[in-house]
Amino acid sequence: MIRLLVSAAALFVLTGQAAAQVPDLSALLPAGEGSASGRIIQAIALLTVLSLAPGILIMVTSFTRFVIAFSFLRSGIGLQTTPGNLILISLALFMTFYVMAPTFDKAWEDGIQPLMNNEISEEVAYVRVTTPFREFMLEQVREEDLVLFDDLAAGRVTENEAQTAEEVELRVLIPAFMISELRRGFEIGFLIALPFLVIDMIVATITMSMGMMMLPPTVISLPFKALFFVLIDGWNLLVGSLVRSFF
Prior knowledge:
mainly alpha
């Protein structure tokens, strides 16, 4: 009985010490003007944005145009897995960094770096970070797409008023920019696939005239299309044309 009482007393003392060592939640959160609940919401919002970073990269940058053009190129040549998806996506990603470098630098210097140095507030940093991306998207978006999403959103931005980055809402600008990039990507893809289609038609006509009915024309045209693309220095022409299309 005495041992049981001593064990219970020791357990109570250890439990009290452990409870005393639990840190305060406010000490774990960064200092700020808001309450602990507000800072928790800010932390959750930050984690959400970081988890959606790949999607944001696709939505507001030149990545869409690059990856669609490279996909059309692979399909036009007739290669299913060469170059691989990893190679095409990596090339599109680094070309995106190349094209978006001035925008990234401006967003870093005007918004992120002052925020990290506690020189500006989060609201001011948000405006300064998004403004370079707004300007980039406004330069690339089509007026028809911008007006379409403005009408769907029942906004007040018209074709004549949407001239500055501050006047366009992101809910209107981002989807309009995305479908504009999809359209341009398909236009470029058509121009890429057209010469390869001509080669396929020529090879198919020759094989049919020679009576080789059971031989698929793509088997013969594949090396000719690859050779044609190499001889014209296709990667240099394609990547150079894609980069110039943004300037």
